[in-house]
Amino acid sequence: MKSLTPADAISSRMSVRAFTEEGVSKETIIKLLNLAARAPSGTNTQPWKVYVLEGEKLQDLCNQVCTAYDSIAANPELAKEFKPAYDYYPTKWFSPYIDRRRENGWGLYGLLGITKGDKDKMHAQHRKNFAAFGAPICLFFTIDKELGKGSMLDYGMFLQNFMIAARGEGLDTCPQAAWNDYSKMILPFIGAADNEMLVCGMALGYADQSEIVNTFHTPRVGAEEFTTWIT
What we know:
Strand order of the largest sheet: 1-2-4-3
Number of strands: 4
Largest sheet: 4 strands, antiparallel
Helix content: 40-55%
Strand content: 5-15%
C-alpha cells in the first residue's frame, strides 16, 4: 500500500460499518497503540487503558450483547437495566446539533433504503454495532472513574491518534459509543477493575469496499462557519 501523508490519513478517516474477515496482527495493534500513546495528557497522566478482543472471545461478547439488545426491543422496560456511566449525548437536543444528527442518521438510513418508521430495519442496522460491524478486532477503552473531565479530553486525542495511525497502515476503524449502554456486561467480561469506566469501543480491520454502507461520508462544517477572528 502507498503510504498516506498525515493530511490524507486524517481526511480519509471515516466510520466504517462493514469489514472484511482479514485479521490484524498483534504487532500492528501494538504499533498503533504506541503511536496513539504519544497523545498529550495533562501532567502526563496518560489516562487510557485498552482491552483488545478477537476470535471466540469477541464473538462471545457480541452474542451476549446482541441478545440483550434484542431483549430490550421485545421489552423496552429492560432498558432501565442498561445505562452508560456518563452522558455522551445531551439530555435535550437543540440546534444546530440536532440538525446535524438528523442529517447524519437519515443520510445513512436513506443510503441503506431504511425509511422513517421502519423499526425492524433500524433495529437490524443498529444491532450491527454489537457485532462490531464484522470487524476481526474490537478494542474497549476504559478510564479510572476518579479522573476529571480533562482526562476525557486527553482520551479523545489518544483515540484520534489511534484512528489516524490505523489509516496510515491501510486499516479502518469505527469508534462506537453504542457499546456504553452495555458496560455492566462488558466490564466484567474483559476483566476490568471496579474503578474503571467504559469510554467507548472501537471496531478495527479492513473496510469491505463492496458494501454500500462504506460509501457514506459525513459532511463537515467549514472553518469559516465555526471560527471567530479577534483582531
